[in-house]
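Dear support,

I submitted the protein below through the web form. The confirmation email said the job was done, but the results page showed an empty box. After a refresh the structure appeared. I'm attaching both so you can tell me whether what I see now is the final result or a partial one.
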Amino acid sequence: MTETKPDTITITVDGKQIPCQPGELLIEVAKRAGIYIPYFCYHPRMDPVGACRMCLINLQPGPPKPQTACTTRVADGMVIETQFVNTEVREAQQGVLEFLLINHPLDCPICDRGGECPLQDQTQDYGPAESRYVETKRRFEKAVPISPLIRLDRERCILCYRCTRFCEELSGDTLIGVMERGSRAYIFPFEGEAFDSYFSGNTVQICPVGALTSSEYRFRARPWDIHNVASTCNMCSCGCSLNVGVRVQDGNVVRFSAAVNEETNEEWLCDKGRYANAYISSPDRLAQPLVRRDGELYAVSWNEAFEKLAEGLAPVLNGEGQAGVIVGGSLCDEDAYVAQKFAREALGTNNVDHRLEPGMSADALVTPGLTYDDVLGADVVAIVGCDVREELPVLFLRMRIAATKRGLRTVIVHPREIALTEYADVFVQPLPGAEAALEPGDIEKVTKALSDAENAVVLLGPRMCVPDVVAAWRSVAEAAGARFGWLPRRAGEYGALAAGAHPELLPGWTPASEKGLDVSGMLRAAADGNLHALWLVGADVIVDVPESGLGKTALEKVPFLVVQDVQWSPLLEHADVVLPGATFVERDGTLTDWEGRRQEVRAAVDPPGAARADYAILAETARRIGKPIGCRTISDVRNELNAALSDPAPARAGLQTNGNTPSLSGDLRLLTYRLLYDDGSRIRDTAGLRELTPGAFVELNPADAERARVADGQSVSVSSAHGSMKAHAQISKGIREGVAFVPWSQWGESAQVLVKWDDRNPVITVEPA
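What the results page shows now:
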């Protein structure tokens, strides 16, 4: 016997006494006790509606006819009989299934849901043996594309409303609904709308009958052909758990689906994490080492590539020149660790960095120390300089759910309205770059909102981890008794910091005795002829750094360039050696999410050709050039990294603001950051996402648009002291007057041309093109 809590009650299900809490849903209580009650419409993360009527039970005391278990709250002394013991319930469920199958097509052999379909399973287990319906079934146009990613087979729909409820209750994208009434009812996008939600793929995964299917996966495999491998998404720092679906016949990755992880993503994925995987099997994948001879790149063996590396690095190894290593922000923790070890021990330099834009210094170090539970369980969350829906979409989804389901309040500090602004107690719009120096009235409102809460959290966005902003907001948090954390954007950023891929930090946040060059310093040294070798590991310094032309100039001038990447890009035009890396589905490793939680990445398929994991390439190079660093297996790397991270240094900060607060004097100040869908290499190979990418635009306040004589949708020229670009105007009251938002890298146009490394928020002009 187990001791029960004082408020525990007891109900009886099929003769079995079950302890539970008052008010729990009967369907969940029975499930916990191992008694399965079938259902279609019920979903534990959404409000019950009792639409499908499949979860019928007999209830005593209660009405004389069967009741739905998904809407019944338990009370002490209830006696319930399910389909296992009650004939009336069993016959009622057969009737429900018979009605559902009246118009449902029997196209299971060609349906993407076939083989993992609850309607199939429950018809087999609880349905009638044959149909009495001989009339013509209703028909609709087949496979209507309701977005570039989603197709709808309306005749399969059983009106469980899971998709519409997900959009209304959870994502907030109310773009689809019920058309017509009665037997003519069907789900469809509202007039004039497309189902272009960032979370539309979740409706496909929770649809119980295959009415909604994925354009990217449709007809590519059958469930029994697929082997699922549990892994972790590397599209952003949310750390979402997913299943990589591999078609056994040919070994190709055919789909990503959300895996259940209550600590991170629950069971959701954003559409970028779900669909931006075409690059894995792109024709542009690098599968063989390449070496430049007489101005051309030629495929060679690994032995030839290592010989060329030894030759090109000889001046560095002899002390006659210096090198630099730049690491991308989406690599596994092990890759970042071995890259910094390779730089320091094999190349003898602290010139190693992962920050492709101005970022965290050792003096402004912020270790997160917060979790999803901390944020979602808070009373008030202050978000400073982060557009959460665009930059950490699943964190946004969970925060929105917390706001609508239990009243989580927010404080938003951002120059433009973001998707969480509607739940904000306080919305403050600083000038871009002035987040460390709010106006006194704004500081008072923010501090009061945080101080009045029993449990408050302050989160800095990806671009906010610079010394003055960290110091200012840490002080605000401490004064209000709030906890303090950081939201990196890229999947590998926090792991790279912890692993020491930083010119001022060793692994475990230990300060380096001698500072090396950061990304900007390495690129400028290369451009000035002061760097002999530059090694890029999954880092694109042409399109990602905040200064147009700097990366290209550096690559043109550096005597020896090594590009280690997974697919062809303009970087290769300048490379002396190209080394093919493995994607995250082709190797084992770990990724550290924004919480500091390290999660497994597992190999689902073999890398193409001669491609290898990044850490393995670096470790073998070190051995071949006579500077062995170990780390030849994933176990070796993990053991070293775990030892380095066993006692991390505490977070440090406390610098004063630098006083460089922007002032406008009637000018427009530029705000720029990446949207979820951009012109990046991942999306470029995924047709559906590419179609949803909005293109270059500049968002203006109506007052600023009127002064510039610019109309909504008009083609405009956007210029700064550093360059100019073309875009179309979007007029919005949600952006602060005096600020213009231009997204980074959209359809061949990028705000990169408007900025420099030390001038991220320049004054710009907008005028009709």
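Response: this is the final, complete result; the empty box was a page-load delay. The longest helix spans residues 87-103.
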